[in-house]
Request: fold
Amino acid sequence: MTRTTISTQAAKPPVSGPAPDTGGRRLPRTLHPVAWWIWALALATAVSRTNNPLLLFLVLAVLGYVITMRRTEAPWARGFKYYLYLALTVVAIRVTFRAVFATGITPRDHFLFSLPHIPTPDWYAGIQLGGPVSLEALLSAATDGLRLACMLCCIGAANTLANPKRALRVLPGALYELGVAVTVSLSVAPQLVQSVQRVHRAKRLRAGRSKGLRALRGIIVPVLEDALERSLRLAAAMDSRGYGRGGTATRRSRRLTGALMLLGMCGLCAGTYGLLDATAPKLLGLPAMGAGAVLCFAGLRLGGRRITRTSYRPDPWHFAEWAVAGCGVLSAVLLFANVGFNAAELNPSIYPLSWPTLPLVPAAAILLAGTAGFLAPPPAAPARAAVPPQRTEEPK
Reply:
């Protein structure tokens, strides 16, 4: 005869994370998503200022450090490596196009190889297909591709560190439905990454082929099917919650709001062009940008009157948010200020072919953006599931 007992050691309450530390350490919490986006966009703006490969590789190192230190265990936080794959693809495509659409070679260039030349018609003059390829041309293309790749990685870092759904809470009422569309589009890549990982894990558990081109067909079909089912569920959920409704606004109000926003965006674009182009008229600089900002603000205020939203437990904005956003913005300002360094060091020339120098002030500005890795609070640990009580049988 046996006696059944229940082990009380396994019936302890679940542990939701590390205990609060009163020794001066910060409590884990989620940083405001807008702070991460400001930091990433400011760093991408700083990247657009230079094509120095040393500074660009330093930006990639800073992104890797911050993501390693402050990413969570959420599904969207696991897809940064796919952004790195996309960045490598961008660089490879840029170099390939530069080699195929050759621009000729000069006596001071270092000849590498020659591609078969394809003659083009007269109306296609100015573009050469094939021909000699120089080392300087490939290095220039690789540098341009690396700059674009760094910008993509900055956007990927923001998508990895910030929860895109929580960013909807701080959008103005006039942009709420537009923000929903942007959030859905931004969450497509993390969801596809999650689907690929889940299908890949299932194939390994079933002892199927998990690598190679043959395994690609067995992964694409389930991923596409899962994406279609998710889109249908999302459409049904949004329709049941009234997204896309016209509300109580009149047709005149909607047209006026759209016209103000459109004119404001045109003003912002013209102002940005005027600030970046030194030969543009002065009216296309700060005046056009200021007028565009005023028009956009008026459109947001007019469109937000017809929409009333409430926010349950809004995300706080404390010193950590100011510090993270500020270090990113300060990094971009230092690179655009051209103070303490020569502007030519940001864009070194290929001729003569030599190793680029690392300017100290821009490097310090990029490392300043990397301080977000410890200025941001540590992410909260995922909750652990409760262990069910174990039944043991003891002989009587």
